[in-house]
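Input (structure):
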């Protein structure tokens, strides 16, 4: 077999292996968009744990990055101080999820016992064992929101 043919076949083989590595990596890292109910269930599960003052269970619904940043006692203290309304919602409503790869955002509206509505933006990240909450931002009490008691 001529030397040129051998080199061409060898280069083709290496190119094929390189392409296979790239495609395999892309397929493994691509995260399919979750059904909305999956993200809603994560929020509902965490809120139920917070209502029951089960901060350990709520903490485990948080993403790894949150658990690296806050210990369980710090997490509990933060919730009690900054997110008290999450421990007492009478009703939970959701806006449409916005998913981009392994990240997602969901608007969450908590109706409190006094009838006021507290809006939040929940951010999620996909982890090996499912979608986890990696951030919550309060939007304040916005009088432009329908159903909001002022």
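Output (sequence):
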């Amino acid at each position: 077999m001529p030397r040129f043919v051998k080199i061409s076949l060898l280069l083709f083989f290496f190119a094929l292996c390189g392409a296979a590595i790239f495609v395999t990596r892309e397929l493994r890292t691509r995260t399919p968009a979750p059904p909305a109910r999956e993200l809603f269930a994560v929020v509902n599960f965490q809120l139920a744990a917070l209502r029951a003052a089960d901060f350990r269970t709520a903490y485990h619904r948080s993403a790894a990055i949150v658990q690296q940043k806050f210990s369980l006692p710090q997490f509990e203290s933060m919730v009690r101080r900054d997110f008290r309304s999450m421990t007492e919602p009478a009703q939970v409503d959701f806006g449409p999820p916005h998913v981009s790869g392994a990240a997602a955002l969901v608007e969450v509206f908590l109706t409190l016992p006094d009838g006021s509505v507290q809006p939040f933006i929940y951010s999620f990240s996909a982890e090996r064992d499912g979608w986890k909450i990696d951030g919550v931002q309060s939007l304040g009490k916005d009088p432009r929101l329908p159903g909001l008691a002022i």
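Notes: The helical segments are 3-29, 36-51, 55-60, 64-69, 72-82. The chain has a mean pLDDT of 82.
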